[in-house]
Amino acid sequence: SFFFPPFKAYLIYSSSVAAGAQNGIEECKYQFAWDRWNCPERALQLSTHSSLRSANRETAFVHAISSAGVMYTLTRNCSLGDFDNCGCDDTRNGQRGGHGWLWGGCSDNVGFGEAISKQFVDALETGQDARAAMNLHNNEAGRKAVKGTMQRTCKCHGVSGSCTTQTCWLQLPEFREVGNYLKDKYQRALKVDLLKGAGNSAASRGAISETFNAISRKELVHLEDSPDYCLENRTLGLPGMEGRECVRKGKNLTKWEKRSCRRLCGDCGLAVEERRAELVSSCNCKFHWCCAVKCEQCRKTVTKYFCVRKGVAAAAVQVQRARGNESPASRRKNLRMRKKH
Ligand SMILES: *[C@@H]1O[C@H](CO)[C@@H](O)[C@H](O)[C@H]1NC(C)=O
Ligand SMILES: *[C@@H]1O[C@H](CO)[C@@H](O)[C@H](O)[C@H]1NC(C)=O
Ligand SMILES: *[C@@H]1O[C@H](CO)[C@@H](O)[C@H](O)[C@H]1NC(C)=O
Q1: What is the helix (H) or strand (E) element at residue 76, kind and residue range?
Q2: Where is region (Disordered) located (predicted)?
Q3: What's the pLDDT tens digit per position in 4-58?
Q4: Which residues contact 33 (CB under 8 A, 6 or more apart)?
Q5: Which terminus of the chain has fewer CB atoms gathered within 10 Å of its CB, N or C?
């Protein structure tokens, strides 16, 4: 349960809101680490300068994950007792929940997180145009994602764990779950065609709200297509894929990660360049009496992959050919030497 404090008291939430927004940003960076668009900082300013605001699929994700992050952190703060005016959601405790279980325990108070997050995040949208409606819809989708991924946790009661009755409560998942869920929604985001001839007349405002009301509030919505992230575009502040790192080998890579070099480089008409670097780090540290720690220096070669322009990669290969029949080992060594210069 919770009550709404007077407006000034909202200051008590501002650190939590900031931490939540940061949480959202970090999750965005994680989810898009191996996508062409990788959640760059400039995309994250939920700008209200409408002329520069994009309204594509990525914008939709940024709004959803930010409002989800804010709601999530507020809710968690509440459960941890960080706020005087809010605690567990026990409104249903004692009621039957389903077959053989009762509500009980401490459910995370998402109602609180939802309400406060709405006050903060939705307040950034001041316009009444299609872009504002899109952002509000995606903010809401983010909050729905937090609610929709909550997990029921139960405890058994009865003689020595016989579980004749159970009490259950709802708790927040790891925020990663919310991120995964929203990434999936991002892949299936819906495009609505509202930008053409969208004025500020009552008629067009009516058309906007009608359109958005017809779409489930769980779905992400966008108005524009994404730009071609392969290409550098300074006007749009896009760096392009040249120079981007991708991953190829590794013990624990997902299919999506393993295909990152093709997605980021190959499909953008770029070649993949392998670069080796030697890492020196402290290892085999021993404690000596008293009181010193002595370590050895260990060397490890790491291989990294980067997207490069095709001509550049071809030139590198030609230089190698010109050097004649090198053994693979010495070729690697030479490559390393060349990289140093
Ligand atoms: C809420 O939690 C976040 C991190 O989980 C923390 O940084 C912040 O200070 C907390 N807010 C309050 C008011 O305790
Ligand atoms: C950059 O993007 C804008 C808007 O999509 C487009 O009009 C322009 O042609 C692009 N510039 C380049 C160099 O691709
Ligand atoms: C990574 O490896 C660990 C075990 O080492 C495994 O539990 C986990 O599911 C793996 N993660 C992925 C994404 O494959």
Answers
A1: helix 57-79
A2: 322-341
A3: 444 555 678 888 999 999 999 999 999 999 999 999 877 665 554 544 578 999 9
A4: none
A5: C
* Pocket test residue of 236, 238, 242 for ligand 2, highest count of atoms within 8 A of CB: 236
For ligand 3, mutation pick of 31, 174, 177, 252 (most atoms within 8 Å of CB): 252
Structure token digits, residue 278? 């030697």
Burial class (CB in 10 A: 0-12, 13-18, 19+), 213: exposed
Ligand 2: does its nearest atom lie under 6 Å from the Cβ of 15?
Answer: no
Residue/partner pairs of 175-181 with CB below 8 Å, 24 or more apart: 175/23, 175/27, 175/69, 175/72, 176/27, 176/30, 177/149, 178/27, 178/65, 178/68, 178/72, 178/145, 178/146, 178/149, 179/27, 179/28, 179/30, 179/31, 179/65, 180/31, 181/145, 181/148, 181/149
- Provide residues with CB under 6 Å of ligand 3: 252, 254
**Residue with tokens 């939802």, as numbered in its chain:** 114
Angle of helix 57-79 relative to helix 175-187, nearest 10 degrees, comes to 160
C-alpha 151/C-alpha 157 separation (Å) is 20
Paired with 233 in beta bridges are: 238
